[in-house]
Amino acid sequence: MQREAREKLGILLGLVGVICFSLTLPCTRVAVAYFGTTVVGLGRTVVAAILVAGVLIIRKEKLPSPRQFISLLIVAVGAVLGFPLLTTWAMEYLPVSHGAVEVALLPLATAGFAIFRAGEIPSLKFWISSVIGSVAVIIYALHLGLGSLKFADLAILLAVIILGLSYAEGGRLSKELGSWQVIAWAILIGAPFFIIPVGLNLTTEMLHAPIHAWVSFIYLAVVSQFLAYVAWYSGMAMGGIARVSQIQYLQPFLMILFAIVFLDESITLFTLIIALIVVFSVIIGKNTEIRKVQPISQESLPQSSETHNSKSID
């Protein structure tokens, strides 16, 4: 009974994490109009670092090892620098619903990097689903771009690839450091490098930004950059990675819903159809069987290839 309650709490925390992440693009769209790309994309980390430092000190967390530090650099490049900065810039030019469709490829990108980091061989079904999802996103971007890909589209797709690698590396490292500690240390690693560029882009006009702009920025710094990760990683630790990670399929639709509610964006049937195609391809791709060849060593007998489900690696 206690285990069942723990799993339900894990699913609830996972849902909270996904809802929090789903508000990231809408809040970015609001904040960037008043604070600019650099302050929103990098400033959120500087603010989050203050909160993170306090939590780590209170909990007396030990410092990562040099080997773990290298992995944390990969996480920081994706989750702390690349994704926030690229998506912030893209949200100056694209509607949130547009970005939501492209970000829907994130679970597939994460699974792909996790597979390769584990030395596994993806199945043909994985590649087919990856191609279907990617082609659907490209067609969608071309359609809205009147026959050409915009740089903002390329920025979001690059952000998805970088964050996918970061998630895969963070998922592997969380087994050693703990769930939320990975993003916490990544924030502390990145923040010192962002102070100067953020400071150079601060202006007195920002003090007169409306309250909804400040609320959006604070949300990005406190929730999107840190607390959402705490809920998400804690949820997967309690409810199981395979089960809780399925909730992530709701994210693009929640993003679209929030874009309608908070930004008054109009959503076309074409957008919803493409979103369904992408999410379906991601579900198929993440649940395909993959082959892992065990290395032959002198201490063990040769082992035959074995298969397991790729959704267990996130």
Automatic annotation (TrEMBL):
It is found in: Endomembrane system. Signal peptide: none annotated. The keyword Transcription regulation does not apply. It holds the Pfam family EamA. Its main location: membrane. Keywords: Membrane, Transmembrane, Transmembrane helix. The chain crosses the membrane at residues 12-35, 41-58, 70-91, 103-119, 126-145, 151-168, 180-199, 211-232, 244-263, 269-285. InterPro entries: AA-Vitamin_Transporters, EamA_dom, EmrE-like. Residues 9-139, 151-284 form the EamA domain. The keyword Transmembrane helix applies. It is a multi-pass membrane protein. Belongs to the EamA transporter family. This is DMT family transporter.
